[in-house]
Amino acid sequence: MMFASTRKAFVKYLEVGTSEEKGPDANQQLFVSNLFSFIGYTITLILALSAAIRGNPTLSMSLFAASSVFFFCHHVHRFPQLGNTILISTRLIFTSLLVLMLYLVYSGGVSNTGPLWIYIVPPVAFFFSGLGKGLKSLAAFTIIMTIMLLYPNEVLLGTTYTLEFKTRLIYSFLTVTLLFGFYEYSRQKSYDYIQELSQKNEQLAMRDPLTRLLNRRGMRTHLDHEYSRLQRSKEPLSVLLCDIDHFKQVNDKYFHDGGDFVLESLSAFFVQQIRQQDIVARWGGEEFLFLLPNTNSNDAFLLAEKIRKQVENETIQYKNKAIKVTLSIGVNEVKPNESVDQAINNADHLLYLAKNRGRNQTVASNMFLPEKQTG
Ligand SMILES: Nc1nc2c(ncn2[C@@H]2O[C@H](COP(=O)(O)OP(=O)(O)OP(=O)(O)O)[C@@H](O)[C@H]2O)c(=O)[nH]1
């Protein structure tokens, strides 16, 4: 119980600056940057106290200064008025880490063990800067460190190392850098692959596999987008709900594969008939929804009739058989004071009227609806 609440408090402490608006990626970066700052300031503080106890005030002061910078990096997110606090903290953490490491190489730290800490630089560099920038900063760090170590007469060092130690330090640092670089490269490639895959899956989830048209889910975002545009621009927006007449009979006569072929052919035909800004989706089994931005009820009706008449006059060739189908269509102009769902329900009602009135016809919301003459 006690452990759980301590853990919760600790996680909350590491979540300083995160918020829902920032999104998961930024929050993750903040969390890890806070974790780095936390580890940074606790370890450097312990080392600062230890150096003070051992009677090394210069080292102690340097470590204490680094600890203060890391502490500031953790809490900078509390001051959003400073701007991009994630960038400020990550750059500050990384720069102070590099300076501290170079200082440890210069001074030797406690009993010349200071350089042992430099191996934390490669993972931190790749985490904060990615592969390309990370390699550049590591190259700069390695060059500065090598010059400091190998400069004649150790004028750039505050301590003395053996030549073997210096060369082994440089080689082993390069080895660790290359290994981390390779790891970062593979990680980045896997990440890109997963991103690509998830984007593809997201796209697939929006499409109907048979006709390749958008499905209901895919159409939803377009409906919402166009509806909010209607609210702003007041340009007309129409929906058109279209259903294949007696489709069950097509399935019965030509079997399911024949029915599928008709759905595919009609979908391709619909796509050819609409403008670039129009969208057609498979709304249900043999039902299609057209979304027509910047189109009033009259123009939507004309388009519906053009499509209906062409389908009526065409035949679909399937395995040497000519299949004839007709369409019933409901046309409705979306009113700004009704929701998209209401507008689609109205179009559905008009489609129902078209079916009731004998099929193979279009009924629009603005039409005078006399009973269809028979005989
Ligand atoms: N081949 C095929 N048939 C489908 C698909 N989705 C739905 N259907 C069929 O479409 C038919 C729709 O039948 P109904 O809803 O009775 O309508 P209808 O026969 O078109 O009659 P009306 O709409 O009243 O003119 C059903 O037989 C469904 O099985 C599909 O993906 N492929």
From TrEMBL:
Question: What UniProt keywords are attached to this protein's entry?
Answer: Membrane, Transmembrane, Transmembrane helix
Protein EC: 2.7.7.65
Top EC group: transferase
Catalyzed reactions per annotation:
2 GTP = 3',3'-c-di-GMP + 2 diphosphate
Extract the InterPro entries matched here: Diguanylate_Cyclase, GGDEF_dom, Nucleotide_cyclase, Rev_trsase/Diguanyl_cyclase
Give me the segments passing through the membrane: 30-53, 59-76, 88-108, 114-131, 138-157, 169-185
In Gene Ontology terms, what is one molecular function of this protein? diguanylate cyclase activity
Q: Does the keyword Mitochondrion apply?
A: no
- Cofactor field: Mg(2+)
Q: Would you indicate the residue range of the signal peptide?
A: none
Pfam families, A to Z: GGDEF (PF00990)
- Does Membrane appear among the keywords? yes
Which residue range or ranges hold the GGDEF domain? 235-367
Name of the featured protein: diguanylate cyclase
Classification from the root reads: Bacteria, Pseudomonadati, Pseudomonadota, Gammaproteobacteria, Alteromonadales
